[in-house]
């Protein structure tokens, strides 16, 4: 059996990148809107309030104080727990890009640019970028756990 501790340190970063690419490639087609279902304004904005959602910031970095020097931006990492029947209300990512990793459960996304609901399962990774507006609902019987990395401008922005 191969021991990672015996590999040269120059190989380990390459293995980490390869692993990340493999995970991304495997989940790239999962939980996406099918090309024939993409349509502008397919879903209208709804005014649901958050239900059964816990949003905990695990850490954050002021990006202006980093070498990237991105003024008025914060990188934060969060854990969202959505109980069965729980709702993450309508929000936009036009000014707040994010990556969502589904750690546990199954959740349905209602995206503004997709005719059909999009199902996300454990192991899926969802990129949320400019042009993404949506809401999510846990229709299952299992609690959903999401890990979210996002870049926000306004520290008072508490959108999920």
Tell me what the structure shows:
With 160 residues, the protein is mainly β. It has a single domain (4-152), classed as Jelly Rolls, CATH 2.60.120. Helices cover 11% and strands 41% of the residues. It is built from one helix and eight strands, in the order H-E-E-E-E-E-E-E-E. The protein has one helix spanning 11-27; strands spanning 51-62, 74-92, 98-104, 106-111, 118-121, 125-128, 133-137, 144-152. Strands 1, 2, 3, 4, 5, 6, 7 and 8 form an eight-stranded antiparallel beta sheet that branches. The longest helix has 17 residues, at 11-27. The protein is globular and about 40 Å long. Residues 9-29 have low confidence and may be disordered.
Characteristic terms for this protein:
globular; mainly beta; 41% strand; Jelly Rolls; eight-stranded antiparallel β-sheet; 160 residues
């Amino acid at each position: 059996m191969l021991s990672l501790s015996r590999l040269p340190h120059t190989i380990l970063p390459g293995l980490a990148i390869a692993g990340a690419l493999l995970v991304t490639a495997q989940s790239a087609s999962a939980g996406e809107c099918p090309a024939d279902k993409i349509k502008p304004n397919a879903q209208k904005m709804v005014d649901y309030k958050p239900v059964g959602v816990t949003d905990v910031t695990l850490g954050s970095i002021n990006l202006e104080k980093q070498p990237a020097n991105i003024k008025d931006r914060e990188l934060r990492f969060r854990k969202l727990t959505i109980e069965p029947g729980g709702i993450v209300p309508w929000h936009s990512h036009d000014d707040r890009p994010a990556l969502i990793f589904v750690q546990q459960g199954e959740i349905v996304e209602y995206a503004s640019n997709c005719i059909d609901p999009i199902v996300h399962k454990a192991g899926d990774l969802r990129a949320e970028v400019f042009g993404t507006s949506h809401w999510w609902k846990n229709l299952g019987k299992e609690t959903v756990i999401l890990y979210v990395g996002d870049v926000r401008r306004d520290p008072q922005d508490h959108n999920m």
